[in-house]
Amino acid sequence: MFSLFLVTPLKLMLLGLIAILGITIVRYSWVAFSGESERGRFLRALLMTITAVVLVIISNHLLLFWAAWVSVSLCLHRLILFYPERPRAQLAAHKKFLLARLSELLLAAAFIALYSQFHTATISEIVHRASESSGSVQLTIAALLLTMVALIKCAQLPVHGWLIQVVEAPTPVSALLHAGIVNLGGILLLFFSPVLAASPVACWFLVILAGLSTTITGLVSTTRISIKVKLAWSTSSQMGLMLVEIGLGLYEMALLHLFAHSFYKSFSFLNSGNTVNHYLAAKLAGSVKPRVRHWVLALAAALVMIGIAQWQFAMMTSLAATVLIWFALSALILPSVCRWDAGSLPRIAITLAFAAGLLTLYTTAKHHLSTLVGMDAPLNLYADSFVALLFFSLFALSIALQYWPHISWVKRLFIWLNAGAYLDEWATRLTLKFWPSESLIKLQNAQWQQVKTEAK
Fold it and tell me: Taking every annotated instance into account, which residue ranges of this chain make up the domain NADH:quinone oxidoreductase/Mrp antiporter transmembrane (predicted)?
């Protein structure tokens, strides 16, 4: 009986994250739905979803893990359709429902392959044996299936559309989904990391698909105006980045990314109502658009800081991770060097001190998390170089979109990105062609009849 559940230091950290997010979102929902007659129904569905996520985390049996995984999706479906009269919510729920059933079938197949390989349904025993065994056909199949499940759960291209359209659901649902539930794909791979590490094919599959998705969705988010839609595309990009880190074997970096993204996205969605105030404050502050020379200064300063940190602590083992941190620090330093006035030197000094503090915090957290996670995998230099090239491409294309929008190929790129690479349109057509939703069709027909009646 006790083998059905297991709490490790890693799982304890995740449970703490779930508790903080759950309490915050439930309290926000209690206030936000104070005037709703269906507040009780919403809160019950919300609590059931959080409970199912907790059960996924502590499960130590393949069947129990799978049942909890299915329960999360079914409970989330009720939250997405809290306002069933919204066509986009219906469409998002329909596509999410079909993709969830597909991912559950793939997860069941992966678990069957693992059971046939190790002849046990206890997850801790499977993970222990996988870390000591060489890659076999069944283990490779299981790793590939787990990778596909994670890609679907993390809303990677081309099955990302439901995540973008689910912004039709209430704000607490978006916060719970983007800050927690989409992370389950990464959590799944972290729990079964020895299985993934035993299959180089699965690692390459994950790095290529998630890397391309990270690059494209990151660029698409720069073309969006709606705050919630922009955040949704950003979530898809960030989840892809987390999967890339797992594919490279940078498990402690992926875990740090998971925690930072969860707190950031929950705050961003719950605080999205203050966006107008933030925009007006930025306009009053008189922001200056950075030029190329400002980027050069910021990149140079960030590179010097990383060089000093590497000299003192030798913390950078991955080229892709180094490039990512370099660009992140440059973006942080950039606003302080854009405007030269009497307060420039103090402003730059404060920014550099803050950047140094973040770099120190990252180094410390990475060191302690690597000890806590207790998982290690050799770094694939070719995959690492491929991801670093993707990061350079993402940076270069975003600069081109910002500074040279009049060039013909940049215009065509912007149109393609603004359309979301047309991938979701094709996915929606195929979905409604082969699995039409009767409720969605009836709702659309009723709205069309209402429009014709009002026109008369």
Answer: 59-277
Distance (Å, whole) CA 419 – CA 346: 43
Hey, which bits of 33-187 come out as E strands? Answer: none
Radius of gyration (Cα) for the chain, nearest Å? 23
Looking at per-residue pLDDT, the higher value among 217 and 315 belongs to 217
The torsion angles phi and psi of 122, rounded to 5 degrees, stand at -85, 120
Counting Cα atoms < 13 Å in the Cβ hemisphere of 281 gives 5
Q: Which residue from 357, 347, 293, 304 is spatially nearest to 326, judged by alpha carbons?
A: 304
Cβ(182)–Cβ(155) below 8 Å: yes
Does the N-terminal peptide bond of residue 158 adopt cis geometry, omega within 30 degrees of 0? Answer: yes
C-alpha dihedral sign at 281, 283, 286, 288: positive
Region of 120 on the Ramachandran plot (φ > 0 left; ψ -120 to 50 alpha; else beta): beta
**Cα of 448 vs its chain's centroid, Å:** 36
- Reduce the DSSP state of residue 91 to 3 states and report it: helix
**In contact, 298 and 337? CB cutoff 8 Å:** yes
Q: State pTM to two decimals.
A: 0.90
Task: Tell me: pLDDT of 186 over 60.
Answer: yes
| Rounded CA separation 158/422 (Å) | 9
Alpha helices in 59-86 (DSSP H): 62-80
pLDDT > 90? residue 295: no
Mean residue pLDDT of the chain comes to: 85
Q: How far apart are CA 82 and CA 330, in angstroms?
A: 42
pLDDT tens for 396-425 read 999 888 888 888 999 999 989 988 888 887
Spatial contact of 32 and 271, defined as CB atoms under 8 Å apart: no
Q: How much of the chain exceeds pLDDT 70, in percent?
A: 89
| pLDDT of 451 | 47
User: Percent helix, strand, coil in the chain (nearest 5)?
Assistant: 80, 0, 15
d(CA 400, CA 410): 7
Residues found in the chain: 456
Residue appearing with tokens 């030029």: 291
Q: Which of 200, 140, 193 is nearest to 10 (CA)?
A: 193
- Determine the 3-state secondary structure of 5 from DSSP: strand
Judged by DSSP in three states, 61 sits in strand
DSSP 419: T
Cα–Cα distance, 146 to 103 (Å, whole number): 9
Helices 344-373 & 9-32 angle (0-180, nearest 10) = 120
**pLDDT of residue 284 exceeding 70:** no
d(CA 376, CA 341): 49
